[in-house]
Here is the input.
Amino acid sequence: MALDLMEEFRPLVCDSTAIRLINTSALKNSDFSRLGNGVIMSDNARRKVISAYEKRMDTLVTHPIFGYAMSYRRVLSVQARLVARWLLGEISDYPPFCTR
Here is the structure.
């Protein structure tokens, strides 16, 4: 269930954060290095990613059901509570979070 809930927010939070970091050149090729068959991220790049993620989680959006602004961090909590209410039979349908 947690992974299902996560899928709702992956494009809105994770993908958009990654795309922004790439489009603004915040991350560069030099932030990564090869290690055997893999690639590792520098500590500085890791800090940039975490900072960008935290900033995105603090972004205010209007919840389509409740109609007031809240951070993505709060939206995740609200949606998790709606899943719980649906599982307990308190509401008939789970209302997914949509920004448009």
Q: What stands out?
A: The chain has a mean pLDDT of 92.
